[in-house]
């Protein structure tokens, strides 16, 4: 049987749940996922727990607070001026607490997300750029279907 190694291509079903058992993602009811270990599709901590598992394994991995997506970083909660939001997107967009907004990386080759926390009267928006599960325990259930 094949074992997961760094750089392995995996076909798997997985379910990720947050601290109250809320399902974040679940592929068990549909098509399995296919991904390459080390490509950033899973957090490095989760990938480390997969290394060494054999094809056909079904297991549950419990990650401690902050282990899966790091600790919450207070400096990643920042105000973004309306003028900058207009420049980066639709100037007529109305933002509300809870909205998730994609921002381009400085090099323009990728993107990152921020969750709106508060909107001021002047249109500036307080965004939390932490991963939604940062600082929280995570349960990761996995069934390895194929390992290449």
Q: How is the secondary structure organized here?
A:
Elements: E1 9-17, E2 23-26, E3 33-36, H1 44-50, E4 58-63, E5 77-80, H2 82-88, E6 100-104, E7 111-119, E8 125-128, E9 138-147
Antiparallel strand pairs: 1-2, 1-3, 1-9, 4-9, 5-8, 6-7, 7-8
**What is the count of helical runs?**
2
Distance between the termini: 10 Å
The biggest sheet, with number of strands, parallel, antiparallel or mixed sense and barrel status, is: 5 strands, antiparallel
Rg calculated over all Cα atoms: 18 Å
Instruction: Summarize the amount of helix as a percent range.
Output: under 10%
Shape: elongated
Query: Overall pLDDT, averaged?
Result: 95
Write the element-wise H/E pattern from the N-terminal end onward: EEEHEEHEEEE
Characterise the protein shown here:
The chain has helices at residues 44-50, 82-88; strands spanning 9-17, 23-26, 33-36, 58-63, 77-80, 100-104, 111-119, 125-128, 138-147. The chain is mainly beta. The chain has 2 helices and 9 strands. A hairpin with a 6-residue loop joins β6 (100-104) and β7 (111-119). The model has no long low-confidence stretch (mean pLDDT 95). The strands form 2 sheets. Strands 1, 2, 3, 4 and 9 form a 5-stranded antiparallel beta sheet that branches.
């Amino acid at each position: 049987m094949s074992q997961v190694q760094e750089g392995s291509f995996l076909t798997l079903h997985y379910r990720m749940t947050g601290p109250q058992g809320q399902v974040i993602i679940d592929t068990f009811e549909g098509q399995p996922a296919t991904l390459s270990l080390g490509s950033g599709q899973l957090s490095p901590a989760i990938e480390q727990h997969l290394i060494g598992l054999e094809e056909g394994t079904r297991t549950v991995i419990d990650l401690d607070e902050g282990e899966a997506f790091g600790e919450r970083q207070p400096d990643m909660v920042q105000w973004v001026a309306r003028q900058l939001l207009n420049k980066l997107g639709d100037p007529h967009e109305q933002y509300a607490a809870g909205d998730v907004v994609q921002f381009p990386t400085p090099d323009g080759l990728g993107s990152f997300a921020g969750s709106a926390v508060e909107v001021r009267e002047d249109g500036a928006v307080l965004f939390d750029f932490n991963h939604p599960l940062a600082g929280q325990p995570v349960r990761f259930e996995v069934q390895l279907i194929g390992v290449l």
